[in-house]
Amino acid sequence: MAPTKNVLLINPWIYDFTAYDFWMKPLGLLTVASLIRRHTPCAVSFIDCLDRFHPGLGRAPAGKPDGRGPFPKEEVPKPAVVRDVPRRFSRYGIPVKVFEEDLAGTPRPDAVLLTSAMTYWYPGVQAVVDLVRRRFGSVPILLGGIYATLCPDHARAESGADLVVPGPAGPALFAALAAALGVAPGPWPGPDGPDGPSAPAFDLLRDRTWLPVLTSRGCPLHCTFCASSLLNAGLEQRPVEAVLSEILADHARFGTRHFAFYDDALLAGKNGHALPLFVGLAAAALPLSFHTPNGLHLREIDGRTARLMRAAGVRSLYLSLESVDETLLREKGPKACPADLERALVELEGAGYDRNSVNVYLIMGLPGQGASGVMDSVRFVRGLGATPRVAFFSPIPGTLEWSTLVRAGMLADAADPLLHNKTAFAYLKSGVSPAEFAAFKRALA
Ligand code: B12
User: Using the 8-state DSSP alphabet, how is residue 408 labeled?
Assistant: First the structure.
């Protein structure tokens, strides 16, 4: 089908107190790009506001060989609602001028599609909408992704997009595109299910040192603070062969050697899923490294799993413990307990991993949790020889934790999504004072 219309996809800037490219790529938007290419009569172009490798930056990007690295940033005024957070607020990504030049060099679009990976990054969407409007007038702008899915009412009222399309890419996207473009897209190729329906359009990325891999969607656990079940009702796993051939094809086509799993529950049902994938990767005997930034379920790590992960090339391990406070764990998400970490570390060490290279996620900033409880968890992890990684709690509408906060009067149900920001919530609502934070940071260092 010869392209008849142009669709411009844009990954907006991050507006935040802190941001680091910790294996971040707009996988959802690139999946949508691929669907459009294959199943509609449209050509796509792409602008990535988070492109650390953009030539317009005028300097070589800093970073690690595995692809992680700092974003360029520019300080911007703090929005009023987070004014009392004692941290600087910045726009992370390419300079506005570079973005405007990219817009000017893009074929005039018939529709613009935006994503947003975090609810509280909506100012990035607004900024992009504003600049797109200045350049292209009333071109239809469609917004999807995690912000659109978790906060559709806010997105409709505040993002500036003409149409908000919540949920996974599916028939609604096709219908919306058809309406926006005045074309008839081909029939919807099927649910955006475990098989694809198509590989993400990674060719649109400038840098492919590393690429994301999604082997499954959803999670069988229901932690009170997690939005996984709001984004995907149940666990859907792609066939192992499809994942394996995608990885091997990306390596062959782009020379990519690093891959980051984006799954919520990579090891769930591992005997029919992750383990055969690891076996296949080990058999391929390629110089590939795998990373697990989203945290692995500790209880699934037995001796065989540890050995197969090692053989497959899983290099950086991030494990989810959250806390050593067993009462908190029971209440918030019974996915692991301290004994699980002790056992998993023995198995990982047996498989050849260094303990201090194993990262353990701990949560901080849950209301009532306080800083001292987190320090106990940090000491416990350090005592076992592993590396604690403290992640701040982000309250997400629709989760159990959110309802508790609303019932307790700590957040309004329609609170500005900027208050979902992990740093903002930690400073403004978690009950930990700035002095305690400073002391905690010193202790952590
Ligand atoms: C991978 C991941 C990360 C990666 C980075 C991902 C990225 N690209 O930025 C890392 C590990 C860095 C990360 C970090 C964090 N994350 Co995270 N992350 C995820 C995860 C697991 C997957 C996201 C993903 O890419 N999914 C796969 C793609 C294919 O799905 P998708 O983007 O939704 O796209 C689909 C649809 O939305 C739609 N779509 C997408 N775009 C568009 C556009 C249009 C126009 C249309 C029509 C459709 C459409 O189609 C796509 C295909 O179906 C999600 C959980 C989840 N299940 O989604 C959490 C999640 C987004 N993260 C979350 C959180 C809390 C965090 C942290 C704050 C954790 C912490 N406490 O530190 C940090 C913040 C990072 C920071 N810099 O501050 C929360 C969201 C919080 C919020 N308020 O929005 C989530 C939902 C997890 C949760 N626990 O509930 N994360």
Answer: T
